[in-house]
Amino acid sequence: xxxQALISLLNEPAGDTDxxxxxxxxxxxxxxxxxxxxxxxxxxxxxxxxxxxxxxHVANEPLSTNYTLILHGMTPEQAAEAYGETLKExx
Length: 91
What we know:
2 domains; two-stranded antiparallel ribbon
C-alpha cells in the first residue's frame, strides 16, 4: 500500500513544471553526483550498471576459494538454479 502511494505521488506533476516529481528527483540525484556526492555517484552506478556481485566464503573450504552468487535482477527461478549450481560446485 505504501509503495502504491509513493508511485502515485512520484508520478504527479511537479508544481513548477509538467515533469513528474520522479524526474525532478532523478535530476537532483544527477546534480548531486556531478557535485561530487559519493553516495549519489554510487546510487547512479548501482542503478545503471547493477550492484557489484557479492562473494560468499564457504567456511569448510580453503581461504583462497570464493564462490560468487549473482542474484540481483534474476527471476526466482534463475536464482534458485544459480544457487543449486553453486551447491553442486561446493559439494
